[in-house]
Amino acid sequence: MKVGIVMGSTSDWDAMKGAAEILDSFGVEYEKRVLSAHRTPAALEEWASSARDRGFCTIIAGAGGAAHLAGVVAAFTTLPVIGVPVKSRSLEGLDSLLSMVQMPPGIPVACVGIDGSKNAALLAIEMMGITNPEMKSKLDDFRAEQAAKILATEI
Ligand code: RP5
C-alpha cells in the first residue's frame, strides 16, 4: 500500500516536503504529483479516481489560496483524504485553511493545520497502523523518541 502526495503547484513543495520526509523515515512508499483542481482538472480527476486501483491507501493533498484540491480529490475517491492548507502569500494560509476545512457533509477531508504536512503523513501512517503491526510499532518508537528528546532537553 502506498500514500499519494499531491500538491497544487511546485511552489507548494517547500511546505509539503515534510510529508515525504516522514514517510521516508517510516519506510512508507509514496508517489508525489503536482496536479491542480483549477489548472489541470482532467488530469486530477484521472489520478484521483484511479488511486485505489493503483494501490493507494490514503491521499495527502496540499494547496494554498483557493485551496480546493483536497476537496476535489475527495470527490473522486472514497480513500481517506488528508488536506494540508499551505501558507499563502496574501492571507498567511487562513484562506487555504478555510477553503479546505469546510467540506459539504458526505465528502470528508481530514484537514491538518497550516503547513502541517508532517502531521498529515503521521496521520496517514496511523491509519496504516490500524491493521499493520509494523507501522504501529514504528509509531510507538517515534512517540517514545519524541518524548525522550523533550524530557532530555534542558532550558
Ligand atoms: C494554489 O495556488 C497552489 O496550491 C499554490 O499554493 C498557489 C499558488 O500557486 P503558484 O502561483 O505558485 O503556482 O493553486
Structure description:
With 155 residues, the protein is of the alpha/beta class. Helices cover 46% and strands 18% of the residues. It is built from 6 helices and 5 strands; from the N terminus they run βαβαβαβαβαα. The protein has helices at residues 13-26, 41-49, 69-76, 94-101, 117-129, 133-152, and strands at 2-7, 30-34, 56-64, 81-86, 110-111. The chain has a 5-stranded parallel beta sheet with strand order 2-1-3-4-5, with helices on both faces. Strand 1 (2-7), helix 1 (13-26) and strand 2 form a beta-alpha-beta unit. The chain is globular, with a radius of gyration of 16 Å. The protein starts with a strand and ends with a helix. The model has no long low-confidence stretch (mean pLDDT 98).
